[in-house]
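User: Sequence in, structure out. Go.
Assistant: Echoing your sequence, followed by the structure tokens.
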Amino acid sequence: MNALMQAQQAYAPTKSATRTGRETETELLQRSIAQLSRAAADLPNSFPQLVAALHQNRRVWTHLAASVADRDNALPADLRARLFYLSEFVEHHSRAVLSRKAEVGPLIDINTAVMRGLSQQGGR
């Protein structure tokens, strides 16, 4: 590909619409649910995959916690507090799963419930 073609491609309009923050968060939760579910289905053989899935899920929840902690977040204060509490629970429970003292199911359930809530609320 020559420089002219690369420039045309770089400045061409995008084919997909821009997603809202809520749509992105929903997709991240869907991915986490899928990764956690796949890894949990084949334990103990898939423990390395479970570790990776838990890490990714914690990253999603760290993002959500930072988002609800932001003063400019438009969600009601009570909902923001509950989501922040859930992020703390996810962190604590993930450590318990990693030390094989807890099951991954509650994390999948939480992600599913929050994802459904995001989907019902529509875009930001």
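User: And one key feature?
Assistant: DSSP finds five helices and no strands in the chain.
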